[in-house]
Amino acid sequence: MTTHVHSTLLDRLRAGLPDTVLSSDPDVLAGHREDAAPLSPVGVPAALVRAGELGHVRHVLGVAQELGVPVVPQGARTGLSGGANAVDGCVLLSTERMNTIERIDPVEQIAVVRPGVRNADLSRAVRAEGLYYPPDPGSWETSTIGGNVATNAGGMCCVKYGVTADFVRGLEAVLPGGEVVRTGRSTAKGVAGYDLTRLLCGSEGTLAVITEVTLALVPEPETALTAVATFGSVQDAARAVAGVMAAGHRPSLLELLDAPTIRAVNAHRPMGLPEEAAAMLLVQSDRGPLASGDIAAYAKVFGGHGAQEVATADDAAESDMLLEARRLLLPALGDLGSVLVDDVCVPRGRMAELVEGVAALGATSGLVTACSGHAGDGNMHPCVIFDAADPGQVERAREVFAAIMDLGLALGGTITGEHGVGLLKRPWLATELGPVAMRLHREVKRVFDPKGILNPGKVLG
Amino acid sequence: MTTHVHSTLLDRLRAGLPDTVLSSDPDVLAGHREDAAPLSPVGVPAALVRAGELGHVRHVLGVAQELGVPVVPQGARTGLSGGANAVDGCVLLSTERMNTIERIDPVEQIAVVRPGVRNADLSRAVRAEGLYYPPDPGSWETSTIGGNVATNAGGMCCVKYGVTADFVRGLEAVLPGGEVVRTGRSTAKGVAGYDLTRLLCGSEGTLAVITEVTLALVPEPETALTAVATFGSVQDAARAVAGVMAAGHRPSLLELLDAPTIRAVNAHRPMGLPEEAAAMLLVQSDRGPLASGDIAAYAKVFGGHGAQEVATADDAAESDMLLEARRLLLPALGDLGSVLVDDVCVPRGRMAELVEGVAALGATSGLVTACSGHAGDGNMHPCVIFDAADPGQVERAREVFAAIMDLGLALGGTITGEHGVGLLKRPWLATELGPVAMRLHREVKRVFDPKGILNPGKVLG
């Protein structure tokens, strides 16, 4: 960007924004230019706007459209695929300060929130009303609802409750140019017109900037019971997951941790996880009086697939500790080196092949791999551990990461179950979607963003 | 259409289709040219193609695109808004014969079906595997999955389980011109690219023709318990519904029948419904051992809103009978005259105002109105009864129908909760969506159907 264009941009932005909202300080920009994805390109932004209200977002998108300047929407930048990374000369448009819960309505069982509300804050606020907002991405303590919607975030709840998009009823969003569009509804049902709400969910900031979200809530679940099962091989554990679902069950949580993950978690924080096991499953039923029967039924299936031991948590505190252990997966593996987290989702019946394949790729590469995740959904997070200072290891880590996505596709799966495409998985998108769907994607993008200013280079490239 | 164009069309269609698939017999065409919507325009079709396989659909959409001939996709033509009505010179493209259940997969808890499979046939087939496909539109015995997806059909299950689109994981569809696109996935999760699956759901045949559907299933629910509560006013019943939800409950079914509906159902088939009541609520919990506690909790709320009596069904047979009574709503009201069925969905907290408003509109018009429906969703089906042979009554019925939609919008609702826009509600769509969303709709339509041959005049006009 030439200096002239740069100063024009800043002048034009300043004309419609309070001083506290706009920053072009290089240190501030440097602190906001990337999300949590490793090995992804990061550009040099021209400005950061921390929007406090709808008018700020409209102003930025009006000026940017007119000047042809790229805009990169940001939430808490906890994303794992580079979707919030700066591109050169862009305006970083954060909606983190638009963080009010506008209302929680028990009659409609909905919440209306601004995009900067943190998932954990919303979850706690609705619990206080006897309601439940299930989506619980690993980042839930810090990530924002706007970011969760933009990436269609998942979590451990999904096996029973679904993903973020399943709870989004309506949106207010701003289009490039500054026009405001309302999509969807606040009512329980509605089929008037095309589902633009769902089109914006998971569009990773490439179609519009979300400024308000109407979320569906469900009644608080009954008391949950959690159990741990240990296995002599990770393939047995994977087959046990398929077996539970084939028996017609639907646990409220079904996670797999393999041995490298178990050891890393214990090393990160002594949790007493069973290090002698090749894999463990964490399973939960939240059906109150039915839960102990559910756990017994799961245990029976696990036993038929070689489970060594099945132990039920004694109380809510022990159950919370087990879930916390699972949430430590990424920081714990991070103690071993840099971590490239994959996010393939395969049919549950193919999961044993996936974990075998990941182990084989790790062995061949000489890098440490771990293969844990949301097994009940077939959505695993194979991790490749590498030394970021060693170019040879970086190269091999990239190769293993890529081979895992190829394997996921070959098994009938997807390259991303919940993390999004961003920059990191862009090269594989066309393979997954095929040429006709890719053409439709490009044309839909053009409908919303004819000048291509919104998060350019992300998702579609 | 000139005779020359007509014969060219038939020749071109014939060249790629077996004789048994193509018909231009005027009597056959006349029998297939409309759906179940009253007072909607019906054109004169040029041909009917009863596709038996993907290739037939591709051929029709290839020829039609080339010749610029409109195509109207059809399922069982049970729709209530004219979406499947012929337009002049069109090819009626029925997928009713593509009716195979390709597979039911208990490990993935999915079914893969062709569009012509009847909802009831799928529902029964998955029950035999211990699984459950919830969407249950009133037409479920005859309507097809393809039609259910195209209209995003609802039913009585929605209050707990959601609508058809909530169960659609992936689609195969044919675009104008004949290209095949696959959207979505068969895995439990996936966020690669835009949600084109959801965009096609509820698009009423205006974007693509659906040729295969991958559906998510859930485990069969526990034993259900059903109860009936009677009220001295329909407003009390409506407030009781809001009260149940506000108390944090989520019944598996929550339907309201007003006095005109109760009387019509009893007259249609003696069901012993309580004729002395101004309204009744039908409520169900399908949580097995929790159900009796649930029903007691609902009864307590109902009592606080003036319920006269709350009676629990003695057994499954009595429960089925009550649900059957509810399903007779439309045929029963049809005994009284022609019926214009509205489908507004309002916030539950505004439902009492809706039922009051409908009664007032009926009284002013001098026509019989009834106001029953999926109260748990705020999705009511106000019905206007009229004599189709009396032009004055037809005119007044149209006015009341229109005024009910205006009222629904004024109460913060939508013009259609589950029936779709079709032809019947087209004039109100722009009011509900607003100019920005309407422009996006038109442009999205153009992406999929640049020549405007698919179901022209429907939804967007």
Keyword list:
homodimer; 461 residues; alpha+beta; Uridine Diphospho-n-acetylenolpyruvylglucosamine Reductase, domain 2; Uridine Diphospho-n-acetylenolpyruvylglucosamine Reductase, domain 3; Alpha-Beta Plaits; 4 domains; five-stranded antiparallel beta sheet; four-stranded mixed beta sheet; 15 helices; 18 strands; 20% strand; globular
Q: Taking strands numbered 1, 2, ... along the chain, how are they ordered across the largest sheet of chain A?
A: 5-6-10-8-9
Give the N-terminus to C-terminus distance of chain A in angstroms.
Answer: 20 Å
Mean pLDDT of chain A: 96
Described by strand count, sense and barrel closure, the largest sheet of chain A is:
5 strands, antiparallel
Q: Enumerate the spans of chain A where pLDDT stays under 50 for 5 or more consecutive residues.
A: none
What oligomeric state do the depicted chains represent? Answer: homodimer
GO molecular function (chains A, B): FAD binding; oxidoreductase activity
Cofactor (chains A, B): FAD
Protein name (chains A, B): FAD-linked oxidase
Domain FAD-binding PCMH-type (chains A, B): 41-220
Summarize the structure.
By secondary structure, the first copy, chain A, is of the alpha+beta class. Chain A has helices spanning 3-14, 26-31, 54-67, 119-127, 145-151, 158-161, 196-200, 234-246, 259-268, 291-304, 316-327, 329-334, 351-365, 391-410, 426-448; strands at residues 22-23, 47-50, 71-74, 91-94, 101-105, 110-113, 131-132, 168-174, 180-184, 209-216, 218-219, 225-231, 253-258, 279-285, 307-312, 338-341, 368-374, 379-386. Chain A contains 15 helices and 18 strands.
